[in-house]
Amino acid sequence: MNVRTLVTAALLIAAGVIFNALIRIPWPWAPFLEYSPADVPTLLGTFALGPIVGSLIALLRAVIHFTHSTGGAIGLVMDIASGVSLAAVAGLIYFYKRTRAGAALAIVMGSLAMIVVVMLLNIFWAIPLQMGISVQEAAGMAFGIALPFNVAKSILNGLIVFFLYKPLSSILHGRQPEKE
Predict the structure, then answer these.
(1) pTM for this model (two decimals)
(2) Burial of residue 162, with CB atoms counted within 10 A of its CB: 0-12 exposed, 13-18 middle, 19 or more buried
(3) How far apart are CA 112 and CA 107, in angstroms?
(4) Which segments in the chain show pLDDT lower than 70?
(5) Is 22 exposed, middle or buried (0-12, 13-18, 19+ CB in 10 A)?
(6) Which of 19, 27, 128, 168 has the fewest CB atoms within 10 Å distance of its CB?
(7) In CATH, what class is 3-26+34-172?
(8) Domain residue spans in the chain?
(9) How far is CA 91 from CA 32, 53, 79, 88, 102, in A?
(10) Over the stretch 1-50, which tens digit does the pLDDT of each residue have?
């Protein structure tokens, strides 16, 4: 990994941490779920630097955020699983199809992977462990509360990345911005 890649990744990690600290919008139906655009820098880094670096951005952002959050170990695992699954799948797709259509497909498939991973963890581990309820009750909560939240979060983050990546790509790749 070269110095430019390290610096770009570090700046994107910092942006994600800052977003987590400053922009937290509670989900109206479950205030313990909060939207933060912290996955936006992760996806931008994934598209510019590849799926491995994007996954590392997600991992390191989650670990740094954990040191300042109240979500505990469960929140850390959920944040890592969410971000890494999103970055890995989106990054692999975009690595092979570097077009606007490829970016859209990468965002959709990465978001679907993230939603599936988070739902499975919520149903079989996080919700039962946190709330002391059965898997069946956890499934009801996950589908009623967590699924709509994660779909809304994915749509919002996906739209932001889809419209920001092209204008920022030359900066993320270390090139001079194109003049119009």
Answers:
(1) 0.89
(2) middle
(3) 8
(4) 68-71, 176-180
(5) exposed
(6) 168
(7) mainly alpha
(8) 3-26+34-172
(9) 29, 9, 18, 5, 10
(10) 789 899 999 999 999 999 988 988 988 888 778 899 999 999 999 999 99
